Amino acid sequence: xYEYIKGTVEFIGPEYVVVEAGDIxxxxxxxxxxxxxxxxxxPLKVYTYQHVREDMISLYGFLTMEExxxxxxxxxxxxxxxxxxxxxxxxxxxxxxxHAIEEENEAFLVKFPGVGKKTARQMILDLKGKLQDVVPDFxxxxxxPEKEDTLSSDHFLNEAILALKALGYSDRELKKVEPKLRNExxxxxxxxxxxxxQLLLNT
Length: 203
Description:
Layout: E1 4-12, E2 16-21, E3 24-29, E4 44-52, E5 57-62, H1 65-75, H2 82-89, H3 94-102, H4 106-109, H5 117-127, H6 153-166, H7 171-182, H8 189-201
Parallel strand pairs: 3-5
Antiparallel strand pairs: 1-2, 1-4, 2-3, 4-5
Helix pairs in contact: 1-2, 6-7, 6-8, 7-8
C-alpha cells in the first residue's frame, strides 16, 4: 500500500495526473486533475489510495489527507465505487455534501452521477455524525489553482467538459450547462469544473 508519492506533475488529463517519482511515472486518478499545477520544480506530495479489483489495480491521488480519508469513507458506503466517490469530491463543495448528509437532504445527494435515492439514503445512514473528525473547516477551499493566462477560455472550458464527462455526466446534461459556462470567460479549467458542477447540481 502506498501512503503518498512525492514527485513532480508531468501530465494532467481529464481523468488522471501522472506524477514522476524516482524515474517512475505514477498514474493517479483524482477528483479534479486540473487542481494540480503541471511541471512544478518543487516536488509535490500526493496522498494515495490503492484500489484492487480482480481485473484492475488503480491508484487514486489526493492533495490532502482529509480528502483521502473522506474518499475512503465514501467507498465504505454500499453502492458507491471509486468513480462515484471522485465525482462527489470533485464538486469542490464538500461542505455542501456533508451538510446534506447531516440534514438528510437526499434531493441534493441524488444529483451526483450514479447516486440514486437508495444510495443517498445509505450515505446518510452510514456517514451521518461520522465525518466531523475527517473534514476540517477549510476543506471546501481545497482547490486553489494558480491563474493560467496564457491559454484561451475555450481551451480551459473544453478541458473542464472532458473532466465532467469523466466524472459520469452525460452529453445531454453537459449541453444544458455549457452555454452558461461560455458566458463566464476568464476561468481556469478547475474553476470551470467547479462552476459546472454547481450548475449541474442545481438543475
